[in-house]
Design a protein that fits this description.
heterotrimer; A alpha/beta (265); B mainly alpha (478); C mainly alpha (392); A: four-stranded antiparallel β-sheet; 10 strands; 23% strand; C: mainly alpha; two-stranded antiparallel sheet
């Protein structure tokens, strides 16, 4: 079933066309990737999906709802979650608190319950805390619950972001360069994590990535953007051998070799 | 750096105590607390003018908070101190009741401003506007102003009656809360999308507009009586039977017959104490709920907060409304206490007064803000006054300022430290921002992980770990 | 080749701002006058009109029209005062994106130093015995003293209270600036009350500054309407114009100005190009402070009485002017100042009559704050657009 569909989405900044006529679909329960050179408009596209930018033209449909014109918090309520390219954690809050914020939309506390510490309130908070611990285990965060989020190393911070995104029980998870800055070992862990998110939690994933190992390794379909437009789309095998992709994105050098080698499964 | 070596020294001294079991620690702490409280109370009782004694007595509040006693012990000791010792000391020297009243009042205001500035990160320089709204609400309805609507300011009403019975005060305390909250939302709505530093200026503007309105709404309808202010404003009635009964107990202790005004001082102290306790509970509960987390998330990163589904406008308005309501109810109480309001009590200096408390104490930190409020109040009301009196003494002596050989008595009589609050606030703000922006008691995030799953650590936003410091100390020792 | 270019640049940078000044004055004057006259016509025969006739024997339209010239003259003067103060705000904001809340006290310090210098001269009998030209010379001397004091205070302020916070989040230096502002207010008060016990000062009267120059006069409804302007107001206008033109020239046509613009646009790149960023920032504060100090002395000249808290309202209003015109933009400061000054003068003269006494001149301050709030909420980039990093 098509979970996400965009038609002709265009985003302009003054004279600059950042995203041009993007048609994109994603089926439920899949892991897709968007790749492209820096400045291709990938993050901008994400931002239009999540409501940070409003596209000048085009339609976006998700799970039966139209997303264009909705605020980011409204879109989050429709069960789309995301992580950010430059990690945007709540630095002075603890890891647990960061993840709890992710759950904000799902918690049903009202003012009376909060002020009077009703049984329902306490039960929900306890439940939320339980879920947080489960999520921390799921993403591989050990024993750091009460640490300030900003004090964790880079890889840990990325995991917090993912756990925080998962906390809102999304149907679609948008990951913006989730393995940037990770070493190969951490990247392997990440690949495994994404698979588990899809398989165990049933969440559809859309990745922006630069690391070809990740892209080729788990994507069921890859979309290639350049200068704001989709220039190719297909399975990893198809993209690997697509001349235009190689020319536009990978050009010469190590990346091209990586692609030519066929990446790593 | 000096702070760290001081901490190490304290850790070394306290070190052997740390190794005792919880139970023994609690007993020793409790005994220490009782003795400390008794000693300082007695000192204040007998030496009623001594500032140091009073400060040490006040410090017992901090000690109660921080010492490792059992909760029940803390509650009992706090209740005894607040409900028995303070009233007695206060009636001995009525000035102390006034100070305690102001501390409770400003603590409420500071906690309110803390929600907007500390939790949510919105710099509000016009907070005094909500305070004014609350005060003028009761001032208008609790006085005879309604009869003077069409008179020129300064005229006396023709009747002796008041518009409402004095005990409507209690109703208006809640009304003031509500009215201020509404004003808070009205102010917040247009202002929310304005960026940080501009937001500060806009709120400053609003604060000034409210003050100017209070100053000028004396024609065509005389709503506020202009610069002269509104007076007399009623205070709630105190039943004479109760007072006589209390006199029987109190007169021998304090050494004179307790007057009605002194009872009113006591009454207002107790009222503000009740309010501040409620405020603290409300703030703590809000802070540990999804609302509080949403506020802090907005402060940290608005974009990420919205992406997590936090409705920005609603949350910011909620912050404004809650903060305003604290100021509103305190405004009503203030008006009743003073029986007089005028626009001059609600100027920019007052907004900065409260802001200084929040910044000095620790933005976002509940105990910090209360300490800040107490510190600034004491500085304003006692230390500066004390300097004034000290200077007067110097003036009357024949002495000279050393080095420049300038006679003290030649110093102009206009030079009165009590009036130099701006100097004080200015210095505090500058120094805190440069050297300790997190405040005296920085915000502390809540530990949630059950003990045993990890090393217990208390982390504050200065990233100082008490355990680490302790371990360092032990390391040096061994 | 080069020579002709620099002369051309010189002339262009001098006359363009003057042209802009005249344009803004005429534009604002026309718009506001037109608005008031239209309003008067619409209210013809209304209760307000009748009340005025009953009271002063003149109808609304005639009253409006006859007061208009003097209101315009006063409005222009006030506009220049605000523009002069606004320059300091806009310069610092343009370079650092920082509101120097304490600029109002820089302004006050300039006023106090200028007044004290003149008082000292008066005490030495110098002022009384000076000629008219001499009086102007002494005034200029006092002006320079005020500028020096203010400029140095601004540099010191930046060094002590702002530089350590340059990389902190935006609100931190703003709070520090508020602290500096409050501190200086009481510091001025302390210094002034040490000796005489009073902390306000009155500028000694000398020279022919108070003489009113008659511009025109015509009869109306039984009385004569005189339009005039005091010499000191002319002085304020001329001085403010010099400041504006001078600053514009400095920023657009000198090497220092180029460096300032570079730092304003991109601090890191500027330092990579060999510009000493700290020095440039100090220079910015020096210039902005000096201008504020000059504005202070002029203000003292015009309004004669000063006190340590004098900076608060003019400061806020000048900041409003700067934002209204477009912060970071010198022309913007000018336009904003003119608009605000005119609006205030119009309101001060007409509000009471048009509301039949319900709201009088005391609402002028509320009006100014109202404009501030509206601008910051609805058009924070100002009339000319925010040009942080570019000037004029």
């Amino acid at each position: 079933m098509t979970l996400l569909e965009t038609k002709g989405v265009t985003k302009r900044f003054g004279g600059l066309v950042a995203v041009h006529a993007m048609d994109f679909t994603e089926e439920e329960g899949k892991i897709y990737s968007i790749i492209g050179p820096n400045g291709a408009g990938k993050t901008t596209f994400f931002n239009t999906l999540t409501g940070i930018y409003r596209p000048e033209e085009g339609e976006i449909h998700f799970d039966g709802h139209s997303l264009v014109g909705r605020r980011p918090d409204q879109i989050s309520a429709l069960a789309i979650a995301r992580t950010f390219q430059n990690i945007r954690l709540f630095g002075t809050m603890t890891v647990v608190e960061n993840i709890l914020v992710g759950m904000n939309n799902r918690l049903r506390q009202n003012s009376f319950g909060t002020l009077l510490h009703s049984r329902a309130f306490k039960a929900e908070e306890d439940q939320a805390f339980q879920r947080t611990c489960e999520l921390m285990d799921f993403v591989g965060l050990k024993n750091v619950g009460d640490e300030l989020a900003s004090s964790l190393p880079y890889g840990g911070q990325r995991r917090i972001e993912i756990a925080r995104a998962l906390a809102s029980q999304p149907k679609l998870l948008l990951l913006d360069e989730p393995t940037a800055g990770m070493n190969p070992h951490e990247t392997d862990d990440a690949i495994g994590l994404f698979r588990r998110v899809r398989d165990e939690l049933g969440i559809t994933i859309l990745l922006i990535e630069h690391d070809m190992r990740v892209v080729m390794g788990i994507s069921e379909r890859i979309t290639v953007m350049d200068y704001g437009e989709k220039i190719a789309e297909g399975t990893p095998a198809e993209i690997r051998s697509n001349a235009r992709v190689i020319e536009a994105y990978l050009g010469r050098g190590a990346a091209a070799e990586q692609l030519a080698e066929g990446g790593v499964a | 750096m000096a702070l760290n070596s001081l901490k190490q020294y304290i850790s070394k001294a306290v070190g052997p105590l740390q190794t005792l079991t919880g139970g023994r620690k609690a007993i020793i702490a409790t005994r220490f607390m009782v003795v400390y409280l008794a000693l300082t109370s007695i000192w204040v009782y007998f030496d009623t003018q001594n500032l140091l004694a009073f400060l040490l007595f006040l410090a017992s509040a901090l000690l109660i908070y921080y010492l490792p006693m059992r909760s029940k012990a803390k509650v009992v000791i706090s209740l005894v101190a607040a409900l028995i010792i303070v009233p007695v000391l206060g009636i001995r020297n009525i000035f102390y009741l006034e100070v305690m009243f102001q501390i409770c009042l400003f603590s409420s205001l500071a906690l309110g401003l803390n929600i907007v500035v500390g939790f949510t990160g919105l710099l509000n320089l016009g907070y005094v506007a909500f305070y004014a709204v609350g005060a003028y609400t009761w001032a208008f309805f609790g006085s005879q102003q309604m009869y003077l609507l069409h008179s020129i300011p300064g005229s006396q009403p023709l009747t002796n009656a008041f518009l409402l019975p004095a005990d409507a005060f209690y109703l208006f305390a809640f009304l003031g809360l509500g009215v201020a909250a509404i004003v808070g939302i009205l102010l917040g709505l247009p202002v929310l999308r304005v960026r940080g530093d501009y937001l500060a200026i806009v709120t400053l503007g609003f604060g000034e507009v409210i003050r100017e309105l209070a100053n000028n709404l004396d024609h065509p309808l005389n709503l506020t009586n202009g610069p002269q202010g509104i007076t007399p404003i009623q205070r709630p009635t105190l039943p004479t039977g109760l007072l006589d009964g209390l006199r029987v107990i109190l007169n021998p202790i304090v050494g004179h017959s307790v007057t009605l005004d002194e009872f009113y001082n006591l009454f207002f102290y107790l009222i503000t104490l009740l309010v501040i306790l409620t405020v603290v509970v409300v703030v703590i509960r809000l802070n540990s709920s999804k609302i509080g987390r949403a506020w802090t998330a907005i402060r940290e990163d608005e974009v990420a907060a919205v992406a997590m589904g936090i409705p920005l406008v609603k949350m910011k308005l909620a912050a404004f409304a809650v903060a305003a309501s604290f100021a509103g109810i305190m405004g009503v109480i203030f008006a009743a206490n003073r029986t007089f309001v005028s626009p001059e009590s609600f100027n920019f200096l007052q907004s900065i007064n409260v802001l200084t408390m929040v910044i000095l104490g620790g933005m976002g930190s509940i105990p910090g803000v209360i300490v800040g409020a107490a510190a600034v109040t004491v500085l304003n009301v006692q230390v500066l006054q004390g300097l004034s009196l000290g200077l007067n003494d110097l003036r009357q002596s024949g002495g000279v300022i050393p080095i420049i050989n300038f006679a003290w008595k030649d110093l102009s009589s206009q030079l009165d430290p009590a009036k130099y609050q701006r100097l004080l606030f200015g210095l505090i703000l500058i120094i805190m921002m440069i050297y300790r922006p997190a405040g005296i008691i920085p915000e502390k995030r809540r530990k949630r992980m059950p003990p045993g799953s990890e090393k217990p650590k208390e982390l504050d936003n200065n990233n100082n770990s008490a355990v680490e410091a302790h371990q360092e100390a032990h390391h040096d020792a061994s | 080749m080069k020579r002709r270019n620099s002369t051309a640049t010189f002339l262009r940078e001098i006359f363009r701002p003057i042209g802009q000044i005249l344009l803004f004055i005429i534009l604002t004057g026309l718009v506001l006058s037109g608005f008031m006259l239209l309003l008067a016509l619409l209210l013809r025969g209304s209760a307000v009109d009748q009340a005025l006739v009953a009271r002063n024997n003149v109808d609304l339209f005639t009253y409006t029209l006859s007061n208009l010239p003097q209101v315009l003259v006063d409005g222009v003067t006030l506009g220049f005062v605000y523009a002069a103060i606004a320059l300091g705000y806009t310069m610092v904001y343009g370079v650092l994106e920082f509101i120097n809340f304490a600029h109002s006290e820089i302004f006050a310090i300039g006023a106090f130093v200028g007044v004290e210098v003149l008082t000292a001269l008066d005490g030495a009998g110098v002022l009384r015995s000076s000629s008219t030209v001499g009086a102007y010379a002494w005034l200029v001397f006092a002006l320079l003293c005020g500028m020096a004091a203010s400029g140095l205070t601004a540099v010191l302020m930046e060094r002590v209270a702002y530089r350590p916070l340059r990389n902190a989040p935006r609100l931190v230096p703003l709070i520090s600036a508020i602290g500096v502002s409050f501190f200086l207010q009481d510091a001025i008060r302390l210094t002034e009350s040490l000796t005489t016990g009073q902390f306000y000062r009155v500028i000694p009267s000398f020279g022919n500054f108070d003489t009113r120059l008659q511009l025109a006069s015509f009869p109306l409804a039984g009385t004569t309407i005189n339009i005039g302007i005091q010499n000191k107001s002319i002085l304020v206008i001329v001085a403010a114009m010099l400041m504006l033109v001078g600053l514009n020239y400095l920023v657009n046509a000198t090497k220092l100005g180029k460096a300032i613009r570079a730092v304003a646009q991109d601090r890191k790149s500027a330092s990579l190009m060999g510009i000493n960023v700290n020095l440039i920032i100090s220079a910015t504060f020096l210039i902005g402070g000096a201008l504020g100090g000059a504005a202070g002395v002029l203000y003292a000249l015009k309004f004669t009485r000063i006190d340590p808290y004098m900076g608060f309202f003019p400061g806020i209003k000048a900041f409003t002017a700067a934002v209204l015109g477009g912060i970071g933009n010198i022309t913007g400061a000018l336009l904003g100042g003119m608009v605000l000054g005119m609006l205030e003068t119009f309101a001060g003269s007409y509000l009471s009559v048009y509301t039949n006494g319900a709201a009088g001149a005391e609402y002028v301050d509320i009006l100014a704050f109202g404009i501030l709030i509206l601008v910051l909420i609805f058009r924070p980039t100002g009339l000319l657009g925010e040009q942080v990093g570019q000037k004029a």
